[in-house]
Amino acid sequence: MKEVPIIDVATAAQMVKDGDTILQGGFGMTGNPVHLMHALAETGTKNLTFIGNNVGEVGIGGGRLLQNGQIKKMIGSFFTSNPDAVKAAQSGQVAYELLPQGTLAEAIRAGGAGIGGFYTPTSAGTLIAQGRETKIIDGAEQVFIKGIRGNVAFIRAWRADTAGNLQYRMTEQNFNKAMATAADLVIAEVEEIVPVGEIAPEHVHTPGCFVNYLVQATLTLEDLGSSASVSSSKKVDESRMNMAKRALSELKKGDVVNLGIGIPTLVADLITEEHGIILHTENGMLGVGPVPTDGGGAMNYPVNAGKIPVTALKGSSYFDSADSFAMIRGRHIDAAIMGGLEVDEAANLANWAVPGKPLLGVGGAMDLAKGAKRLIITMTHTNPDGSSKIVPACTLPLTASGVVDLVITDLAVFAFPENKLTLIELMPGATLEEVKAKTSASFVEQLA
C-alpha cells in the first residue's frame, strides 16, 4: 500500500499559492487545523478565498489570516462571532458570501463527489436566495446551489496511518470529512500517525486515497482559544424556565429533537433519562447528554452546536455535518425548538438577522426551520422597547415561510390550527388583557 508523505507545517503552508481557494475544516475551534492555518499566516500568501463554517476566533486559525489581510473573500455560514470578520465585511475590505450551514456542507459534499450542484428548499424566499436560480419541485420552491471545490483543503483528524487513512474523534468530523474529498490538494493535520493497519478498516472515516500529505501536530488547550471550556454564563430566570418547561411538554418519548441557542438550551437541562428524548446537534452528534460536571473542555468531550462541551449518552453516535443536515432536510428530526425575533399571522419566522447588525451569521436555522417535522419557537413576547414580536407580517428578514407550528412566549402559547394564529394558553401570571395589549397581530382565541 502506498505511503502518504509526512511533512512539517511550514512546508505544507508553502503549497498554498496566491489567489487559491482554501477549504478549512472545523466547527468553532473543534477539529480545526490551527497549526496549518497559523503556518499559512506566517507566509506572504494573499488574495485567498476562504471557505469554512466560520473563520475562527480573533487571531486563531483563519482569524489570523483575516488579521493579516490575506483573505480577499470568505464563504461560510457564521462569521458574526468574529468581530474582525464583521469589521472586514462592513468596510468592504473582504468580500463575503453567506450560506446556510447545511447548504454549505452539502455544496462541499457535492463538489467532492463531482456533482455540479443541487436544489434545496433551504433559504427559499429569503435574502440569501436572491439572485439564485429557483425551481418548483413537488410543489415547493427550491434554490439551486453550485457544488464547491477548492485548490487546497486543510483538515484536522485525530489519527492517521502512513497510508493516509484518517480517523476522527467525537464531533471533530464536522466539515473535515467532506472537505477531504473536495480539493485538488488535501493536507491533514493529525494528532498521531501510526503504522498502516493499526486503524481497523471499520474505523477509517476518510480513506487514504483522498489525502495527499500528513502533518503531525499536537493540540493544546491554548490552540482552542475560548472554545476550550464549558460556558457557565447561561441566563436563567423564572419566565425563561417556564417557557423551557412548556416546550418540553410538547415532546414525546423517542423524539429526535434539535435545540437552538438561547431559551431552547434550557430545555436540555430539564430532560431526564425517563423522558427518552434523543437530542441532535447539527455539527454531528445524536444522543447529546448534559454538560460535563468536571469542568473539562473540548479536548476531552464532544461539543454541541453552541460550541459548548457536552457528554455522550449511551447509544450516541457521531457523523459529519453533511450527514447531520441530511437528517434535517430528510425530515428525520421530529422537532426543532428555536428562538425567534418575529413570528407572524402566516406562521412565517424571522430569527437570523438582528436589526442594525450585519447579516453575517445564519448557521443552521434555515435548514431546521424547513426540515424539522415540527417547529416550536420560544421567545419573549415583546422587544426591549415594548413592541410586539407576534406581528401581522414579519418585517425582519425571513428565515422561512409558513413553518411555525407553536409559539411559546413568556405570556402566551399560540398555535396555527386551520392556518390561523390562535391563542391556546396563557403562561403563569399572564392575563388575556395583557396578551391583547402586547400583541400587534390579529389572533383567534381558543383558551381551554
From TrEMBL:
InterPro entries linked: 3-oxoacid_CoA-transf_A, 3-oxoacid_CoA-transf_B, 3-oxoacid_CoA-transferase, CoA_trans_fam_I, NagB/RpiA_transferase-like
Keywords of this entry: Transferase
Which molecular function terms from Gene Ontology are attached?
A: CoA-transferase activity
- Per its UniProt entry, which superkingdom is the organism in? Bacteria
tRNA-binding: is it a keyword of this entry? no
| Keyword Transferase attached | yes
What biological processes does GO assign it? Answer: ketone body catabolic process
Q: Which SUPFAM superfamilies match?
A: NagB/RpiA/CoA transferase-like
Active site feature? 282 (5-glutamyl coenzyme a thioester intermediate)
Q: Which family does it belong to?
A: Belongs to the 3-oxoacid CoA-transferase subunit B family. Belongs to the 3-oxoacid CoA-transferase family.
Q: State the NCBIfam families in the record.
A: pcaI_scoA_fam, pcaJ_scoB_fam
Which protein are we looking at?
Succinyl-CoA--3-ketoacid-CoA transferase
Naturally occurring in which organism (per UniProt): Runella rosea
**Origin organism lineage:** Bacteria, Pseudomonadati, Bacteroidota, Cytophagia, Cytophagales
